[in-house]
Structures are given as C-alpha cells and as structure tokens.
Design goal:
Layout lengths: L25 E7 L4 E7 H7 L1 H8 L3 H5 L1 E5 L3 H15 L15 H14 L2 H17 L6 H11 L5 H16 L10 H7 L3 H9 L31
Parallel strand pairs: 1-3
Antiparallel strand pairs: 1-2
Helix pairs in contact: 1-2, 4-5, 5-6, 5-7, 7-8, 8-10
Length: 237
C-alpha cells in the first residue's frame, strides 16, 4: 500500500486559504543574488502557512519576527517572483492540494524555483516548478533546456534529490525512447563528462522495475512531495 503523503509543518488545511490574505500583519521580503534585487510586501499568515522557513523565522523569537523583515541573500529574485505568483494562486484555490494553473516553465527559472522551494520548505511550490518543467520538456521532445536543469540540479542539490532524479529520468527517457545519441556535436558528451554522478543515477533508474521515463507514460510519483494527481496536468506527447 502506498504511503500517504502528509503536508509539511506550517501547512494545515484548517481554514479557507483565502482568509490568509486578510491578515493585518505584512512582512517585507528582500531578495538578492548579488546582481539583481527585489522587495516584496506579503501577508505574514500566507507566508507562514505555505513555508516552514517563514513559519520558523516569523513565529519564533528570532530578529525577523520583531522587525517584520526577512532578507534572502544569494537567491534569485526572478525565482522568488515566481514563488509569489504561485503563492497567491494557491491561496485563492478551493483545495489546498491544488498547485495552481500549471503551464510550461522555462528550465532556468524552473530549476532555480525548485531550489528556492527547497530552502523555503515549500514542497508544493517545488512540485509546481517540477510539473512546469515537465510541460516545457514534453513540448520540446525532451532535450530543449534539459541540460540547464541537469547542471542546476547537480550543482545545487544533494545526491538523491527529487530534482536530480527528475533530470536523470528525463535524460534516460530521451536516450531510451527518443533515440538521443551522445556525441560531441550534440553537446551531450560534455554534459555527461562535466556532471559527476549523472551516469550513475541513470543506471540506478534503469534498474528499477518500473522504468521512470519522466516524459512518457510512467511519470514517477516519487518525484512529487505533496498529495497531487499528476494525471490532471499530464499532456500527451
């Protein structure tokens, strides 16, 4: 029997999510990656309900809870802007398990968004980014943008992360079902040589009883952290 997925700390479905927009406490969030910066003012209740990171920072005796300001250094403002977009969409949904309207997500933003979601302790946002990257790759027969996701996943996430498994599974699918050939001209030999552990991860996935061909019919449910039916957003290729 499959183990039921549970919501992480700070994400309870006790009252309508839209009520979170009515709180009288606002939080200023400053995000910078050293090159660009952005500032957002967001409802405290909404942030703490969606993110275990914000829940800890704003509901415990830490400086941020008194100053009502949170600074995220070394994070991508574009990825956080994407998080804010998802945050309001999620809050206005009827069902807390709803990811919001998922469409194609550019691999650069999608990968950074997933990594940001990991830092913020927001698995639903990570799933949103993952499904969006799936749509992007599926529309381009897999290879367009996949190298960006692979490099981001293996440079910024630990071994065994869901983003690494997604990236390795997508590449395995391209090799097995889409006749992708590794060659200097295609650039994929450089990716394989450059990204440590990628080949090993592909071999491990290949050995699974149910092959995790990410872009075809066997979407691996273990890639998603929240309770969510991927079939609602899968598109036939």
């Amino acid at each position: 029997m499959a183990q039921q997925k549970r919501n992480p700390p700070g994400i309870s479905e006790a009252k309508p999510l839209a009520r979170l927009l009515e709180g009288d406490t606002s939080i200023t969030v400053k995000v910078s990656d050293g090159k660009t910066a952005g500032v957002w003012t967001l409802p405290k209740d909404l942030l703490t309900r969606a993110s275990s990171f914000f829940d800890a920072a704003l509901n415990r005796p830490w400086p941020e809870s008194k100053s009502k300001q949170v600074e995220l250094k070394d994070d991508d403002p574009a990825a956080f802007r994407f998080f804010v977009q998802w945050l309001y969409s999620w809050a206005l949904s009827k069902d807390g398990n709803h990811l919001g309207p998922v469409s194609q997500i550019d691999p650069m933003i999608g990968a950074r968004a997933w990594i940001l979601g990991d830092k913020l302790g927001c698995p639903r946002f990570q799933d949103f980014a993952l499904v969006g990257m799936y749509h992007y790759l599926a529309a381009r027969l897999g290879t367009g943008g996949l190298g960006i996701i692979i490099r981001a996943a293996y440079a910024n996430t630990p071994p065994g992360s869901r983003l690494r498994r997604f990236a390795a599974g997508a590449l395995l699918d391209c090799v097995t079902n889409r006749k992708l050939v590794f060659s200097k001209s295609s650039g994929w030999t450089d990716v394989i040589d450059e990204v440590e552990d990628l080949s090993n991860d592909m071999v491990k996935l290949q050995m699974l009883k149910t092959k995790p061909y990410v872009l075809t019919e066997n979407w691996p449910d273990f890639l998603l952290a929240s309770s969510y039916d991927i079939s609602k957003h899968k598109k036939a290729i």
